[in-house]
Amino acid sequence: MAGDETLELVVDSVAQGGDGVGRHDGLVVFARGGLPGERVRVRLYERHPSYARGQVDAVLEPSPERVAPRLSDGDHAPWQHIAYPAQLRLKATIVREQLVKLAGAPDPPVAPVIAAPRPWGYRNSAHLHVEDRQIGYHVAGTRVVADLPEDPLLLPALNEALAGLRAILPSGVLTGVTLRASVACGYVLGVLRPTREVPALDLLLLAEAWRAHVPALAGVAVEGRDWRGAASGVASLLEELQGTLFELAPTTFFQVNLPQAGRMLDLARAALCPAPGMRLLDLYAGAGAFALPLAAAGAEVIAVEEHAAAVADGERSAALNDIRNVRFVQGAVERVLPGLAGPFDGVLLDPPRRGCHPTVLEALARLAPPRMVYISCHPGILGRDLAPLLAAGYRLEQVQPLDLFPQTPHVETVVTLSLHPVGGFERA
Asked: Quick check: is 377 catalytic?
């Protein structure tokens, strides 16, 4: 049975989720922790007629690209055993394979992955679980919290905040905590997720004790309560992205790797060429990380975002920067987009991991903007969504992966599409 069964195989490739892939007696085996070129012993935990999944429990012939991991319990950094240049190469391979397979692009123009300036110590936010006094991430496939005294993926200021909380945290008070860092201003915010029984006064005392231990901790809020009524100190995160200031609620999404977010913005601006007189559309706009800089360049921008809190942050940030040529529309993109009147000179879309609703892709094909930029964090979903756009006459001009999440198999991809009414890409 799976769990007791082990087998040996040679890993010959890597799957989208980051597992090594090999074959054993006609069975495709996904080997978590395996690298292409290695001979490994795998303990299976799931078996089906044509494939199986397992965990490498012994590396019999290692790849020269295998390195010593920094964390023994590092499920949130599943590629830490791979040398960083090899991580980049594997991510480019995954993007290419998914576009060939799911978008039907025979030779997609996938550029080399843009490396992160810092392969470690890059994350400006973390959402951690708490169990009694243990703080960390869930062990893969479980609800067990693996205690994490220090996380080498986080900015140093966040590790200082984590250590400060660990020093004063009573048992049974929290179910989780969020840490956010302002790279521009150098301070940290914390968001407590309390258990139901904790009185407000106890949370306030905990927040003030935590701030006393961590000089960089400027404010502490409580999840589920008005963020402006912070438990202690500063109530919002002020961040800067290439000259544009953003005032964000402590729980509003923003890119976790700020230097790489700046590179994505550079790619979007280069593709859309925003200028006065242009009309652009930003879908899944969040707090306006792309919409506001595009508008600052002179284009009129309509930004569509479902979450009211993010829209409020975007509007507040627009006022902060005196940007008046951006309009936020709050609502689900699949409901809002069909009612928007064109034409648009360009469209940027940065959907969540699940990608676009089919209605969105159909509406984009009808609007037929001459250029689009699609930003995706999931190569398979990207390939799925690109297929109908290519069939509608768009051509892949540029496919640029970026490494926002070193030490993991996740990869962000910025795709530039241009409309060619005679057809999509040219088939070989």
From this structure: yes
